[in-house]
Amino acid sequence: MDSNKLNGAGCYTEHGVSGYGVAAKLSRKEPMNEAFVKGMAETMMLTIADKCMELGARCIGHIKSHLRTEAGTIKADTIGTVHGSYSSGTLTKPVKDLYIAINSIIQGIPEEAVKAATLEGMHEVADQRGLSVVKEKEHAYFDAFDFVASKQDYVKQLEEQLSAAENPDSNQEK
Amino acid sequence: MKITQIAGFLGCGKTTLLLKLARDMAGNGKRKVALVVNEIGEIPVDGKIMEESGMQVKDIGGGCICCEVAATFAKTIYRLYKDFAPDHVLVEPTGVAVPHQVKLAARMGGRDAKITMGPAIVLFDATRPAELLDMDMLGQLVTTQIKDADIIAISKVDAVEESEVADASGRVREYNPKAEILRLSSFSGLGLDLLVDRIIDWKE
User: How many residue pairs bridge chain A and chain B with CB atoms within 8 Å of each other?
Assistant: First the structure.
């Protein structure tokens, strides 16, 4: 059953499905409340979906995001522009910094195109809303698959992950 | 240890359903329920979201459990049996997984573990039947998922008109004349109790 792995292809490959994931830290000088963050995340999802379709995608499988802040977490996703985007979660107070993980799973375009659409969409919407992308790292999540990490650990680990990406030479021993 | 998969195409509501089912089935300690989540793409958003909801989740990345990482899935099943011995394992395959291959992989893990198979529950998104079924490459995949289903749950029924639910039900029935078809809204809770009953009572 693992023969597909040996060939480097999975069931999704033969159906033209590609995925791309990225984690980033976004910051804004003015604090962002819950409505602002949700609106930004929803717009980001739709913008990425739009860009995928412009690049030739035939179907938006699922574009999901998970945003963590010191005041709580927000989730936003879309299955295509015609379906809209949805967000949930709460922030207990306005924040200036947030960590975002985006996973885009798209049918009909190669991974490089999914990557381009995802990064362009994230940067474009962040820029429009006055956020700067302080750090970003592809193929990464907040916590390197540690499901029992505390919220503080998540943030710390992401900082380390992103720092390591910025300074690969200082992280050789890992 | 009964293994039940919640399958269906990307974006059909598997993660939301899995969380609600797990809570309902666990029922304040009545049953031990473990979750296995598999996601294609680069990063495990589903697993994170579940973990934030207080559930312990076994995440399998690096490929699809129906093909690429089937052996990893089998080992995970065995390890769950040995270390945790849950009454139920709810599995969320990727949105492009083939249910009968997921079953085969689970059985591989069950060679040295006492497992039974629950139903293959396949969700079908009532908000986009044409988008899913009428495209050449995707259509083949989605119809395969439907054909493999023991139970088909028409999902997001709260988001469409009754006629659209009927249309979606009719379309999936063409591909699978035997499966039970039920209506599901994880948002309103419609169909959840029925699914819990089906999983608990299911006999191979």
Answer: 127
Q: Which domain holds residue A65?
A: 17-168
Average pLDDT along chain B, 204 residues, taken 10 residues at a time:
95 90 85 87 70 73 82 89 90 92 87 88 94 81 94 96 96 96 94 96 91
Structural domain total, chain A: 1
- Asked if the Cβ–Cβ distance from A20 to B125 is below 8 Å, we say no
Question: Do the chains contact at A79 and B56, CB–CB below 8 Å?
Answer: no
Across the interface, of A15, A73, A83, the residue whose CB is closest to B137 is: A15
Distance from CA of A15 to the nearest CA of B (A): 6
> Quick one: closest CA in A to B43, which residue?
A21
Show Cβ contacts of residue B127 under 8 Å, excluding neighbours closer than 6 positions: A83, B156, B159, B160, B164
Domain of A128: which CATH number?
3.30.70.360
- What does the block give as tokens for A68? 């963590």
- A12: closest CA of chain B, how far (Å): 6
CB contact under 8 A, B96 and A12: yes
What lies within 8 Å, CB to CB, of B202 at 6+ separation is B2, B4, B118, B119, B150
Residue B108's CB: how many other CB atoms inside 10 A? 18
pLDDT in tens, A101-151: 999 999 899 999 999 999 999 999 999 999 999 877 776 655 443 333 445
Predicted TM-score (pTM) of this structure: 0.82
